[in-house]
Design a protein that fits this description.
163 residues; Maf protein; 5-stranded mixed sheet; 5 strands; 20% strand
Length: 163
C-alpha cells in the first residue's frame, strides 16, 4: 500500500508540522485510513500526528465528527460542506492544530451525473484560519482514485502550511 512518493510526501508534511509545533488529525471516508497509514509509516510521526477518524458512514461522520444531519441531507456525504464539517470536527475532537478531511466516490459504482465516480471533496482546517475546501475528479480505478486522493490531501496540507 505504501510507496516511495507517498512516504516522501508524508515525511515532508511531518517536517512542516514539526517546524510549526503542530499536530495533525485526519478525517477519512473514501480513503479508509490510507492517510493515517501514510503518515504513521514515517518514524517519529507520533510527534506530529495525533489521530485519524475513519468515518465511512453518515452515522460515523455525525457521531465522531459532529457533522450535522442537515448538512448530510442537503448536500450529501461527498460535498464540500460535509468535508468542511469533518475537518472542523477532527480538530475539535483531537489535540490537533491542523486537520484534513476527505470524502469521495472511488467507484466502480456510486457515481451520478452531478457526482461522477472519481469525485473527491477535500477540506483543510488550521487553527485560527478559515477552513478551505475543494473538489477534484480523478481518473482511474478505485485504487488509483483513492491513492490520488491521499496524495492531494497531503499536498494540499503542505501548501497551506507553507503559505
Amino acid at each position: 500500500m505504501m510507496d516511495e512518493t507517498l512516504y516522501q510526501l508524508a515525511e515532508e508534511v511531518g517536517k512542516a508540522l514539526q517546524q510549526r509545533g503542530m499536530m495533525l488529525a485526519a478525517a477519512e471516508s473514501c480513503t479508509g485510513g490510507w492517510i493515517g497509514a501514510a503518515v504513521t509509516a514515517v518514524p517519529g510521526s507520533s510527534g506530529w500526528f495525533d489521530r485519524g477518524f475513519i468515518t465511512y458512514t453518515n452515522d460515523a461522520k455525525q457521531e465522531m465528527l459532529g457533522v450535522s444531519a442537515a448538512t448530510l441531507a442537503k448536500f450529501g456525504a461527498v460535498s464540500e460542506p460535509t468535508v468542511r464539517e469533518m475537518a472542523i470536527g477532527a480538530r475539535k475532537n483531537s489535540h490537533a492544530h491542523a486537520a484534513l478531511a476527505v470524502s469521495g466516490i472511488a467507484g466502480p459504482g456510486g457515481g451520478s451525473a452531478e457526482k461522477p465516480v472519481g469525485s473527491v471533496c477535500f477540506a483543510w482546517s488550521l487553527a485560527n484560519e478559515e477552513v478551505l475546501s475543494e473538489t477534484r475528479i480523478f481518473a482511474g480505478d478505485r485504487g488509483e482514485v483513492r491513492r490520488q486522493a491521499v496524495v492531494h490531501a497531503l499536498q494540499g496540507l503542505l501548501v497551506r502550511l507553507e503559505s
